[in-house]
Design goal:
Distance between the termini: 39 Å
Order of helices and strands: EHEHHEHEHEE
Structural class: alpha/beta
Strand order of the largest sheet: 4-5-3-6
């Protein structure tokens, strides 16, 4: 692009300064729109001290349903598993997000690989699969496509699925 007029960056915290700067070099001062729900410190500084205007979206799009968010302890796991099973029986799907691919002795969190195995046993009537960043792109895409088609009921993943996958039938996200 040699005459770029508009550069839009969604999830701007995932792009580096140099990457965003490279887009700005693709034209004569292209208009730039950066979007994020989690601004990085540099962006906040530009808002306060630089030349960065802010727009805030503080309402849901028309027709958008309210999202219920709940924080529960691990003591609710069996109840959550039953809820997920009920949703799958009703034709819906679920995401389960884990912070790590493999176990780490320094952190007390469950890995994608181990939690997938656990859920495959607990939710034995459900097709439970996992996807993570160390997988080959083709394998990741096949699993994500199968989830989008409804062939996989529960997708266990790292944050690799944060951007770029939209499955309206997935009504639960367990983190």
């Amino acid at each position: 692009y040699h005459k770029l007029g508009l550069a839009i960056t969604d999830e701007q915290h995932r792009f580096g300064v140099q990457q965003r700067g490279a887009l700005n070099q693709k034209g004569e001062s292209p208009h730039t729109l950066v979007m994020t729900a989690t601004p990085i410190p540099r962006t906040l500084a530009l808002i306060l001290y630089g030349d960065l205007d802010v727009s805030i979206i503080d309402e849901l799009p028309p027709g958008r349903q309210k999202i219920d968010t709940m924080a529960v302890s691990s003591g609710y796991r069996e109840r959550i598993y039953k809820f997920i099973e009920k949703q799958v029986q009703d034709g819906r799907q679920a995401y389960v997000i884990c912070p790590m691919i493999e176990e780490n002795e320094k952190r007390e969190v469950q890995s994608v690989l181990n939690y997938t195995e656990e859920l495959q046993q607990k939710l034995n009537q459900c097709n439970v699969q996992c996807v993570h960043g160390k997988m080959k792109p083709k394998e990741k895409q096949e699993i994500m496509d199968a989830f989008a088609k409804g062939e996989i009921h529960v997708l266990v993943s790292t944050t690799v699925i944060e951007v770029g996958i939209n499955v309206p039938n997935a009504v639960i996200m367990l983190i």
